[in-house]
Design a protein that fits this description.
Blueprint: E1 2-6, E2 9-13, E3 47-57, E4 60-66, E5 71-73, E6 75-78, H1 85-97, E7 99-104, E8 123-130, E9 133-147, E10 156-162, H2 164-167, H3 176-188
Parallel strand pairs: 3-9
Antiparallel strand pairs: 1-2, 3-4, 3-6, 4-5, 4-10, 7-9, 8-9
Length: about 190
Amino acid sequence: PQRHRNGKEWKWTSVPLEEVKLWPRPKESWGRANSQSFPMAHIHELIDLTVAIFIVHEERILLIHHRKLEKWLPIGGHVELDEDPEAAAIRETREESGLEIELIGERPPVTEDGTRALIAPRFLDIHRISATHEHIGMIYFARVTGGDLALAEAEHHDIRWFTRDELEELQPPITGAIRWYCHQALAEIR
């Protein structure tokens, strides 16, 4: 089922899965997802919105060693149904690191009632989580404004600041995409 707006009310309607477009994927992978398909809780069946926050402080970048995924990643997580992406980035950072941040980016001026401008993510991506599920990732760059760094032990093995050179020594190694985003954030935030 998909949710469609009918006037002022939201109404659930059935849509055949074949009509739902993600990005080209083999027909044999079509089907309903189940809770065993994903390492994380998902809000939507096919695509979730997520945030990733690359935080720079004193020419170092913050990464966490994710407990379930067993890899180094930026702070991040799902955008909840009751929040916008900007709020999600600030909440995830506070929950996962104890830090307060300033998101870096442009906020357009707003002149109309009923409109609230948000800081645009620095980059967007879409990444596959399973054969039937994807995340649209909003990649933010940020700087620290307060708080004390703290490890979220239930979610992470470690949380650390890294210089550009230390990124190359990480074990397990970071992916090419994570490395590129780290280098971009370090170059842009001084």
